[in-house]
Amino acid sequence: MAMNNRFFIPLVMLVLTYVMLALLVGCGTQQDAGPPNIIVIITDDHRHDFLGSVSPNFMETPNLDRLAAEGIRFSNAFVTTSLCSPARATYLTGVHAHTHKVVINEDMDITEATPTIAQRLQKEGYETAFIGKWHQARRATPRPGFDHWVSFQRQGHYFVNTLNVDGQWELSRNYITDELTKRAIDYLKRPKDKPFLMFLSHKAVHEPFNPAYRDTIRFAGLPVPDFDSPTGQIRDKAPWKQNRRQGEGELIIQRYRQTLASVDDGLGRLLDTLDEQGILDNTAIIYVGDNGYLMGEHGGLWDKRAAFEPSIRVPMLMRYPARIKAGSVDEKMVLNLDLVPTMLDLAGVPPTSELQGCSWLGNGPARDSFLYEYFASEGSVPTTLAVRTRDWKLVTYPQNPELETELYNLADDPKETTNQLQGNAEIFAELQAELERLKQDTNFQWPEY
Predict the structure, then answer these.
(1) Model confidence over 305-317: pLDDT tens digits?
(2) Is residue 103 one of the residues assigned to a domain?
């Protein structure tokens, strides 16, 4: 029976419309493939400038450099607390330490009132995995939100570890960076029917710096940088700074570089695995450090915690071709607070109101300042509240009134050698007001610990 043209022509037009829409949707956009896989690699105590792409004269990191060359490097990336447990909890939650309550190392987990990104994305249909150093409450057993779990107690060890694997205990005698990389690769090779979020959380490059045996002569031909700053007023103005080591800086830095080498090598193997699995370009790969590390600056300071630039600045790299132009360098101030909003953005999930950061994607964060906080525990660094703007930094020690407030002009004095508190009353007042505004905006309250 012949179809009446009154019905046939609209039907043809409808079919053509659907065909055109299908062609448009299938033009290689990311939406076509659905939400991407997400891998977050976190290292410990990795300074921002120990990358070949930043300091080629004294560092070689070919795989991290590849990540930067095929993606983006954030050249002004910071943590809001320069200490392992608080910083890692912020990477997981998108809020300051005073909000998630993990304010010191190894004694507390994120509160139930603060969901992690794993819990959020698990509800959105992601498969989730955590492999490596958790370093919050002193237990290695699985935490909420993760479908697959591999971890160890406290700091773990470089050469022998007892791992908790999905609730069961296993002994590993492998070098820990290699062991965690292998388990991450094994996870990537598992069949999956949904997008995944995987945290690969390294112990490296935490002190004591113990490289893999194969790397103990690596970088022998590279010069060892000398970060000590003997000039300026900074030697004499802060009596709490006692963590100094005389005459061993070169050896420490050399072993630090060698310990980091296995992380870089493991990243190369991970990238190769993603390529072999055919999912490299549909996987957002993010590399971050949990805090920086002082290496002799300011008259011989080591470790982190303090509000100085080498302590609070970290490497941040990201590769995801669908939304990031290869070889980009972003100079905006970005924070560990921004990781959770960025991952939600990648997954197409709207951010929630309690988050205190912004997605790196699109135009990125437009901040001009941020709040830095450190709550004293072990070590000699006192409780610190600071505000860092593009050109200035105000550092206060609210529980130690005998310590002098510090004001630095970062534009003219990037190494923070001279306290500019005297003679800059107007700047001091502005930064004091900004510090109070940031505290109010983040609902700052003194934590109990």
Answers:
(1) 999 999 999 999 9
(2) yes
